[in-house]
């Protein structure tokens, strides 16, 4: 590739960034693993979302296939319940997913279907209020309409818990606050039309609501968690696949770890690669400025942050989405991840998500 053209042409820089990131991921992931079983196929799900950045980088450059030494069949989901149902049906072997759908699926299957094998993202969620809505503090939400991405999803639970703590009840429970499950693109449209007052959502939509919808962040969810860290996305694997193809799972995790490190090494190249891949997968252009801003609020990680998953489960029970207090023993299995981390000289992560 012409070096001068790469410096001058943003598209060329994005292409170069994707190639370099993919090459680094593949080289690092393959460097410490035994040869993969011949003919391995991994069916991997993800969302076209910045919180699933490792999957987007892997799909863009083919680095996961190279690390696996086989074929990856990619499946794109737009909602956690769809990914969970695909895992239940054996239609995918692994998926990036939000922690609350993962908890719900684990409880529904009595722990038989899948386990969390790694984290993917921390942070990146916020309560955004529309300029002109007259909302300056938590006291100003009476009679308002607040959107969340989906009923019972991770941000919906966080919103309901926060509003309950500030004395609000949703209309369906006799209060005067409307909590409206609304797809993220529709949230942006209704912000622009001044038809909703606020949204508790996740990146890159937080940044898009700021930049394109005339919004401002009232509550960055990081401020509600010890140390500012909480699981926003995790990587799960079906138990059957983990039992029958453990080497393939470790290769997937090695690629995931290296993609996480690549995201930290060069944020500009990563942002360009992510914006291009999201546009390719969805057919809709995501402004590069929004991707860069999103990456400033998101911490890509391989740590599942198991203690925060346990708290998320307790929160879902408190707001009524889990009828019984969940028992999460066995939800997180980081033994394969810790083997991968040890092989590259990185510290192990904690495993326990709850009783």
Low-confidence stretches: 1-14, 23-28
Order of helices and strands: HHEHHEHEHEEEHEHEHEEHHHHEHH
Q: What is the residue-averaged pLDDT? A: 88
Number of strands: 11
Helix count?
15
Q: What separation lies between the terminal Cα atoms?
A: 54 Å
Largest beta-sheet details: 6 strands, mixed
Query: Proportion of β residues?
Result: 15-25%
Helix content, binned percent: 40-55%
Whole-number radius of gyration? 20 Å
Strand arrangement within the widest β-sheet reads 2-1-3-10-4-11
Task: Write down the overall geometry.
Answer: globular
- Please identify the structural class as seen in this structure: alpha/beta
Please provide a written account of the structure.
The chain is of the alpha/beta class. The strands form two sheets. It has a six-stranded mixed sheet, sandwiched between helices. Helix 7 crosses helix 14. It is globular, with a radius of gyration of 20 Å. The N and C termini lie far apart (54 Å). 51% of the residues are buried. The N terminus is likely disordered.
